[in-house]
Write a structure and sequence with these properties.
8-stranded mixed barrel; two-stranded antiparallel sheet; 31% helix; globular
Length: 261
């Protein structure tokens, strides 16, 4: 029996097991992976659609938590996706865009407040760091401020981006060791990326067709939310990958983040 992080006892038995692939990619470490989908306003909330993803192997849903300053009505889409996830019994937590023109601490608070009001899991928040039209995306200072606000809100930040975008930031080293969810569209659902940009890789978004699919290190996610890793599947159903095992930031590193170092 497979247990996702225990918030309400989400369980997926044979369906979860079938989604874990066993593959050898050279010498590496044993990492247990699960698959998930991230959604926004581009996907009209639908139980039929969510069920089709679950049948295809999705075991978690990452939902865009829209902020008050974004287009009216989008927060209702966030609520509907969280409601559908609860009805389906699938683990769901939020992600939020970081804009250069919006105070990052405000973006974090609004995303987490909305998630809590929807009954979503606010113990994790993915911070979407990239360009958006004419919006260049956040600076490293803004990302660190957002990460620090997550910790103050008792949430764990995960940096979502592309390695190419991150590498354009001269002070990228200041994010070293933070959990990372990186986009690399190679259509390969294995937790390996060509460049981790110095982050601790916990997830990889490997395709956007027909919807955004990712693979996740479930032990790392469990550790982030303070739940003992699922050891029952590790021996026979883990996936051998070349990624480094997740190591959470040290207390000193967390203090530096909170102080904006």
């Amino acid at each position: 029996r497979f247990l996702c992080p225990d918030r309400g006892g989400y369980q997926h038995g044979a369906r979860a097991v079938s989604a874990v692939r066993r593959e050898r990619h050279g010498v590496g470490t044993w990492v247990m992976i699960i698959r998930g989908v991230d959604v926004a306003s581009y996907q009209t909330p639908s139980r039929e659609l969510l069920d089709s993803w679950i049948e295809a192997g999705a075991q978690l849903l990452v939902v865009r938590a829209y902020q008050l300053g974004e287009e009216a009505g989008l927060q209702e889409i966030t609520r509907q996706w969280f409601d559908l996830a609860q009805d389906a019994g699938i683990w769901a937590w939020p992600y939020a865009w970081l804009y250069s023109t919006v105070p990052p601490e405000v973006s974090v608070r609004e995303a987490l407040d909305l998630t809590r009001s929807c009954g979503g899991d606010a113990r994790l928040l993915a911070l979407d760091c990239e360009e958006y039209g004419d919006e260049p995306g956040p600076s490293i200072d803004q990302i660190l401020i957002a990460a620090g606000e997550c910790y103050r809100q008792r949430a764990q930040p995960i940096i979502y981006s592309r390695a190419g975008w991150l590498r354009q930031r001269r002070d990228l080293w200041r994010l070293a060791g933070l959990p990372g969810w990186l986009a690399q569209y190679d259509s390969d659902p294995v937790l390996i990326v060509a460049d981790d940009a110095g982050l601790q890789l916990v997830g990889k978004q490997y395709t956007s067709l027909p919807v955004d699919w990712s693979v996740w290190d479930i032990d790392a996610l469990n550790e982030l939310v303070g739940v003992d890793p699922c050891r029952s599947l590790r021996d026979g159903l883990a996936t051998l990958v070349g990624a480094k095992p997740y190591r959470p930031p040290s207390k000193r590193r967390l203090r530096e983040i909170l102080e904006g170092v």
